[in-house]
Amino acid sequence: MTPRWLTEAEQDAWLAFLTAASLLERRVGRQLERDSGLSHLQYEILVRLADASDGELRMTELAATLLNSKSKLTYQVDQLEKAGLVTRRTCRQDLRAVYARLTDAGRERLEQAAPGHVDTVREFFIDAFTPDQLAAVAAGFGEVNRRLRESPE
Q: What is the pLDDT at residue 67?
């Protein structure tokens, strides 16, 4: 079977995406580290916990939401726990289940970090697009996400 080689326009789009994604990830990571002492993944963990009912999620659910391995998540939650931003607890009904819970200090750190993070995302991502382009980006990547989630590894 002959591969469907990328056209020049398709190659340009693919390379622009790869470069932008790497540069944006680095910029956001540096901003968060500088302004709040958090890695991007740690910030996302705090965001997910803050959005959860009662400020807690089962670790397996948190890993699935963040699309990270359990071991990588465990390490990051260890760091957040040492900093007093998260606590962990086991479930009485299922001793294998471990929950991560956002502490008051974690909520405060998130509230402190959020404005700078949003400013960075807005400056280097949101404001780079017109409203129509942003809608197209959301729709396009929504479809990419759907295909990836539905496709077997």
A: 83
Rounded Cα distance, 65 and 45, in Å: 9
Question: Cα(79)–Cα(131) distance, rounded to whole angstroms?
Answer: 38
Q: Is the dihedral of CA 108, 111, 117, 119 positive or negative?
A: negative
Q: Strand (E) positions, 4-145?
A: 56-58, 86-90, 98-102
How far, in Å, CA of 89 to CA of 97, rounded? 9
Helix (H) or strand (E) holding 140: helix 131-150
User: Whole-model pTM?
Assistant: 0.89
Neighbours of 126 (CB within 10 A): 11
Q: What is the pLDDT of residues 96-113, one digit of tens each?
A: 789 999 999 999 999 999
Q: Where are the beta strands (DSSP E) in the chain?
A: 56-58, 86-90, 98-102
Q: Please name the residue that has the structure tokens 């089962």.
A: 58
The whole-angstrom separation of Cα 63 and Cα 26 is: 21
pLDDT tens digits for range 56-80: 999 989 998 888 777 888 999 999 9
Contact 77, 36 (CB under 8 A): no
